[in-house]
């Protein structure tokens, strides 16, 4: 057998990867891509070229609350080896700045005519927090697995990206402030359209996908005509957005936020120069409409860029021809309620008072509990608490989206993740966001909580392959899963991702019927 010795190329790459703090250094072997705004230099990891912190928009600080501008072209080669800052927000450990319009690209080829499918991921965080730089979203494995181009993106959040100031001054520079976060995403997709071929991608085959608030932003883009043609498939993972914020409620929140800052509604100009830290700290104020939690800012029906609610009164016709995946997890609310040990130790007397504030659908709590005890006689009070709160809070929006798409004949595939985290004895189950690490094929990342077991890797392989197939041809079927049929009202066919994948018609039917007597309104909208 011939003894293998390290090549000069591999030694240089290893040296670049061995710097402290996960930093990368430029070498003569570092890949360089030429964008329409200038050249960027990345690095190569496991055969994938990685470009982090690539600018797609100009600094938004000088245009606070206004639509962003394209970047100014630069000379020379910019380093793209570290993530760009996130949008200003509360409780984040990574750097933040109003200069936050950066994206990240993972690809196996550069300007090679590869025509690879492009998978653009939009992070979650309820329009208020997050960034595209979580280890969960690292695109190396997904790019390697499917020979696709993966993109993650930062954009403006919370009051910087969504607010009601445009209602207070509709004729001034504030007019579009209710949706500039979404307009940032459109600017990023325009960058993808104009530049991704230089990274080996196909601008005519772009899939957008996102979890939670990321999915919510994407279904909003589905109702925004200016996003038309910039993406060709969409997948939401627990992104149960149905309603945006009405302009009246947005204005009420804007006035309350300004009053909290000591400003009157006619003092909008003072917000333009106020320190970022002061604006961010004010986000901790109690929401004036819900009466609890921090103040809510998200997409606004401003009758400009967004003229209707995303899935009310029906599915948007603007995107009826776009294939869509709609997914959810079996134990969604354990992500929000599982951190309190008391919720795993409830008795029947405690359950009604504990469950009632967690239901979004207005169905009598005692009736709900009684029905669950009939349906699942072996459930403990805590089992009922998590199951009913999921079905009556976190599941309905997904059903509305699938049902409304089916009513207009728009293609949609529904999935439910039953495979759960093995950690802590498996008590957390398939909680909200648990599908991210599986879809990105990142079981090895500690944040995935999947465990890097053979079972977890098998589930990840099936989910990531399905998403890759969907990105490539607009259909998620692969040889490793049963035939995944589109969602129709007659059968409500749903792919169940578990240790073994299976198709099931109308899963949790009785739970769906139990809550179907009440209309769904997204809280705070």
Describe this protein's structure.
By secondary structure, the chain is an alpha/beta fold. It contains 17 helices and 14 strands. The strands form two sheets. Strands 3-4-6-8-7-9-10-11-12-13-14 form an eleven-stranded mixed β-sheet, sandwiched between helices. The protein has a three-stranded mixed β-sheet with strand order 1-2-5, with no helix packed on it. β13 and β14 form a beta hairpin. α12 packs antiparallel against α17. The longest helix has 20 residues. The N terminus is likely disordered.
Describe the protein's topology.
Elements: H1 8-17, E1 32-35, E2 38-41, E3 43-45, E4 48-55, E5 77-79, E6 102-107, E7 116-122, H2 140-146, E8 149-153, H3 158-161, H4 165-168, H5 180-195, E9 201-211, H6 213-221, E10 233-237, H7 247-260, H8 269-273, H9 276-281, E11 324-329, H10 334-337, H11 351-355, H12 365-375, H13 381-394, H14 396-407, E12 412-417, H15 435-439, H16 454-473, E13 493-497, E14 502-505, H17 509-515
Parallel strand pairs: 2-5, 7-8, 7-9, 9-10, 10-11, 11-12, 12-13
Antiparallel strand pairs: 1-2, 3-4, 4-6, 6-8, 13-14
């Amino acid at each position: 057998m011939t003894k293998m010795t390290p090549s000069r190329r591999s030694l240089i790459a290893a040296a670049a990867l061995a710097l402290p703090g996960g930093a990368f250094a430029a070498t003569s072997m570092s890949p360089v891509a030429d964008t329409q705004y200038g050249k960027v230099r990345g690095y190569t990891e496991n055969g994938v070229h990685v470009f982090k912190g690539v600018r797609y928009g100009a600094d938004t600080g000088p245009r606070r609350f206004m639509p962003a501008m394209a970047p100014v072209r630069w000379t020379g080669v910019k380093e793209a080896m570290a993530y760009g800052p996130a949008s200003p927000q509360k409780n984040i450990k990574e750097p933040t700045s109003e200069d936050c319009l950066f994206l990240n690209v993972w690809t196996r080829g550069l300007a090679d005519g590869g025509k690879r499918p492009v998978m653009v991921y939009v992070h979650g965080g309820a329009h208020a927090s997050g960034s595209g730089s979580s280890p969960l979203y690292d695109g190396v494995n997904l790019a390697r697995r499917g020979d696709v181009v993966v993109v993650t993106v930062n954009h403006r959040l919370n009051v910087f990206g969504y607010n009601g100031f445009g209602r207070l001054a509709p004729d001034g520079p504030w007019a579009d402030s209710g949706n500039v976060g979404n307009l940032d995403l459109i600017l990023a997709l325009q960058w993808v359209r104009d530049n991704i071929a230089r990274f080996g991608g196909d601008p005519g085959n772009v899939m957008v996908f996102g979890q939670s608030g990321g999915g919510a932003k994407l279904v909003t883009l589905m109702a925004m005509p200016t996003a038309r043609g910039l993406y060709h498939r969409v997948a939401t993972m627990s992104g149960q957005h149905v309603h945006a914020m009405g302009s009246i409620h947005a204005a009420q929140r804007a006035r309350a936020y300004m009053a909290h800052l000591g400003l009157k509604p006619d003092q909008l100009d003072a917000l333009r120069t106020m320190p970022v830290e002061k604006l961010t700290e004010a986000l901790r104020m109690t929401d004036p409409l819900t009466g609890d939690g921090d103040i809510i800012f998200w997409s606004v029906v401003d009758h400009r860029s967004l003229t209707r609610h995303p899935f009310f009164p029906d599915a948007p016709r603007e995107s009826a021809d776009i294939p869509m995946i709609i997914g959810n997890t079996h134990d969604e609310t354990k992500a929000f309620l599982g951190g309190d040990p008391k919720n795993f130790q409830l008795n029947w007397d405690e359950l009604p008072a504990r469950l009632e504030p967690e239901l979004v659908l207005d169905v009598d709590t005692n009736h709900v509990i009684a029905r669950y005890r009939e349906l699942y006689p072996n459930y403990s009070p805590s089992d009922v608490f998590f199951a009913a709160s999921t079905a009556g809070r976190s599941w309905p929006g997904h059903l509305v989206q699938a049902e409304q798409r089916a009513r207009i004949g728009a293609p949609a595939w529904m999935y439910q993740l039953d495979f759960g985290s093995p950690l802590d004895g498996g008590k957390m189950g398939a909680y909200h966001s648990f599908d991210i690490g599986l879809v990105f094929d990142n079981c090895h990342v500690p944040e995935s909580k999947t465990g890097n077991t053979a079972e977890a890797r098998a589930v990840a392989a099936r989910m990531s392959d399905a998403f890759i197939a969907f990105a490539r041809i607009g259909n998620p079927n692969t040889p490793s899963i049963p035939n995944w049929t589109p969602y129709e009202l007659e059968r409500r066919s749903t792919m169940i991702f578990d240790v073994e994948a299976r198709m099931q018609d109308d899963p949790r039917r009785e739970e769906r019927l139990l809550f179907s007597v009440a209309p769904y309104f997204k809280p705070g909208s």
